[in-house]
Design goal:
The chain is built from six helices and 18 strands. By secondary structure, the chain is α+β, with helices and mostly antiparallel strands. Strand 16 and strand 17 form a beta hairpin. Helix 4 packs across helix 5. The longest helix has 15 residues, at 131-145. The N and C termini lie close together (6 Å).
Length: 289
């Protein structure tokens, strides 16, 4: 299963360090399937996006993923890819960039020719082979159709996909320089949110989050003093404030860290896929690693 991690400290820029692939610390960890790519997206002081991403096809690529990434941003987006569609290529590695926004996804969508027909000229935004990037192009299309309203664009794109495409899951995180959105749909995979007070539950701790699967680790000393909102595929520490988004629930974190949540998809997909419907490779990508 792909790993998603999003963080907003808006309106403050904070320094953070990310490890996108920690070394295995046990035989059990070594037995897990190796990821197919890692990526990290941030925004510079001028609000321009910066992305580091790499498919994991060789030792040098794994070294890239294990080395700490030092960065400063208001929002952060990290992704560990287990490929369902598309080969090992930078163009297929998350996060994707379109119209100044960053996007990462965990799930599977079918009938990509129908999705491409829906995109029209927005098909030109797609550089790789994945369903994820094509769905992002649909989100971008709908944002433009809704006059820049990102929440409305995500909602419209997800509703169209739920009604017209075979859907296994659409779990996503989208970031701009000072806002963050996350959608969990349907109930296939978890997607957790934590509204973290300054210093966490003890009031004096820096942020130190680590995936139980040993894949993503994030650290920020600045968040000992400032609030933040975190979104992740799994609970990443013992903070009791972690909450799983409800199926069909869209989270929006504003430029002042105000978080709003609402159900935007009330019904399951018209054509819901199961693991048995997926090919072996795609099915393996959607199981816990």
């Amino acid at each position: 299963m792909c790993r998603l991690f999003g963080l907003s400290a808006a309106p403050r820029r904070v320094h953070a360090r990310f490890w996108l692939l920690e070394a295995p610390d046990s035989l059990a960890a070594q037995s897990r399937r190796e990821p197919d790519g890692t990526g990290l997206g941030v925004f510079d002081a001028a609000g321009s996006p910066e992305v580091w991403k790499q498919p994991l096809a060789a030792y040098a690529d794994k070294k890239f993923a294990c080395e700490a990434k030092e960065c400063a941003s208001t929002t952060f987006l990290a992704h560990i890819r287990y490929a369902s569609t598309g080969g090992l290529d930078p163009a297929n590695t998350h996060p994707f960039l379109q119209h100044g926004r960053l996007f990462a996804h965990n799930g599977v969508l079918g009938d990509l020719p129908r999705l491409e027909d829906r995109l029209g000229e927005y098909r030109d935004l797609v550089q790789g082979d994945t369903d994820s990037e094509r769905f992002f192009a649909l989100v971008t299309q709908e944002i433009d159709a809704h006059h820049g309203d990102v929440s409305a664009g995500i909602t419209a794109a997800a509703r169209w996909a739920a009604a017209n495409l075979p859907v296994f899951a659409i779990n996503l995180v989208l970031t701009t320089a000072d806002e963050l959105w996350a959608l969990r749909y349907p109930d296939t995979h978890d997607l957790y949110v934590l509204q973290r007070g300054a210093g966490g539950p003890h009031g004096d701790r820096h942020l130190e989050h680590a995936s139980a699967a040993g894949r993503i680790r994030a650290r920020s000393s600045g968040l000992a003093r400032h609030r933040s909102v975190v979104v992740a595929s799994e609970r990443m520490d013992e903070d009791p404030g972690w909450q799983n988004l409800r199926p069909g629930e869209l989270l929006h974190v504003g430029a002042d860290l105000t978080a709003t949540r609402r159900i935007v998809l009330e019904q399951p997909p018209r054509h819901a896929l199961t693991l048995d419907d997926l090919g072996a490779h795609a099915a393996a990508s959607q199981q816990a690693q």
